[in-house]
Amino acid sequence: MSRTAFFRKIGAEYANQRWSWAAVNHERNEVYFGAWDDRTTQSSAVILEDKWQSNSGRKSPGYSDAAKKLKLVENHGYALQVFKMVNGRQPNEDGPSKILELDETLYPARLVRTEHQWIAVFSGYEAETTEAIHAKIAKLYPEGAKRTISVEAIERSGAARKACIRHFGPSCRVCEMDFGNVYGELGTGFIHVHHLYPMKFVENAYSVDPIKDLVPLCANCHAMVHRVNPPMALEELKKLLRRRSAPK
Questions:
Q1: What is the residue range of 85's domain?
Q2: Residue 48 contacts residue 66 (beta carbons within 8 Å)
Q3: How many other C-beta atoms are found inside a 10 Å radius of the C-beta of residue 106?
Q4: Which of 71, 129, 144, 205 is the most exposed place for a label (fewest CB within 10 A)?
Q5: Is this model's pTM higher than 0.85 or not?
Q6: Do residues 133 and 152 both lie within one domain?
Q7: Average pLDDT over every residue of 222-245
Q8: Alpha helices, DSSP H only, in 35-123?
Q9: CB 216 within 8 A of CB 171
């Protein structure tokens, strides 16, 4: 789902379908803002930075519009609601960020302004320094060969998800479906990611290896493995598909 499609779904007003980063509902006195997974920790998210004012030398209309929306929070008592987005842009890729996945949950937050950034602090947590936030985010996906990513229990790590897709590619590990081949540009890069170890059984923080613990699955196969409890092993689902497709 795109940002603007989500804004329409929740009844929020936005300035432009192509470049709006934020939206508002004046009846509810609420401002809605997306937070990228690679700028978000459990407690806080960097939601706007001064350096985003321009992109490739061009002034960004999304930045100025977003800054105006945040002024409603700072100066007029509007409540800030944050939704989380998985960034589909590769680490060394230039250009604007791309939404790989959007979490429709709205998280109440308070706004903290630093010298060059606006930070959303989620309800129930204390504000952190920008340095602490960036340090935690950097630990989610360290550079080099190390692939272990620390995540909180039950919390889905967008960095781990992206690392899994980078390694395996965006095709299903059971039926081999590639959404891009079926739906063209609309489906390019889209895929679900399945946790081989069900996260609901995790009671403490643990480390996810995106190669050993995660696999990409299409929406259908992902739904089927979760039709039973505990989830069906992938090899079992493959055998089921082979039996169903075998000549009678």
A1: 1-137
A2: yes
A3: 15
A4: 144
A5: no
A6: no
A7: 88
A8: 61-76
A9: yes
